[in-house]
Amino acid sequence: RFLPVQVVAHLKPKIKTFFLPYRDYVRNGRITYEVEKIEDFLKKRHKNIITLPLKDGESISQATESILKKIDGVLITEYSLHTDDITEITALAKRHGIPVFGSTEDTLRQGALFGTKADLEFMGVKAAEYCHEILSSEKKPADLPIHMLEDSRRIIVNPQALAEHGVTFSE
């Protein structure tokens, strides 16, 4: 689930302080869990993280301008910001030469170095396995456990943004 953070830590090891903005009303159980896991992961690697809960209607530009001087990278997690927020923070970060690391294909289109994308083929295979188990036994869907598909996302990259920040991949 936190593969983008792992890739960032590997590709850009000189980044010491990350910024993680999010809208405070979306810090529900899922976002809280994700933020905590990212914080733990980065702390174990001796990295710092500045989180910023933004109130509804609060301008991301005003809230983040002073923080941009203290950070080396921006992390955007899935469902944590509005599309307009992502556009704004990506533009701000670009003006300051700070790389943005996203978690979705949308963040990639807006200038993030990379993100993740649902692997629909993998998810289809898992769904078919579930259906097979239901149809080939007397089990009902309610009898089967709920699965979190940890491997259901794949990394996608933005070659232009990678080149702008000097990130290269070797064979």
3D structure, described in words:
This protein is α/β, with parallel strands linked by helices and 171 residues long. The protein contains seven helices and six strands, in the order H-E-H-E-H-E-H-E-H-E-H-E-H. The chain has helices at residues 3-11, 29-44, 60-64, 83-95, 105-109, 120-135, 159-164; strands at residues 17-23, 48-54, 73-75, 100-101, 114-118, 153-157. A four-stranded parallel sheet has the order 2-1-3-4. The protein has a two-stranded antiparallel ribbon with strand order 5-6. Helix 2 links the parallel strand 1 (17-23) and strand 2 (48-54). The longest helix is centred in the N-terminal third of the chain and has 16 residues, at 29-44. The two termini are 25 Å apart.
Q: Care to give the gist of this entry?
A:
The protein has helices at residues 3-11, 29-44, 60-64, 83-95, 105-109, 120-135, 159-164, and strands at 17-23, 48-54, 73-75, 100-101, 114-118, 153-157. It is an alpha/beta fold and 171 residues long.
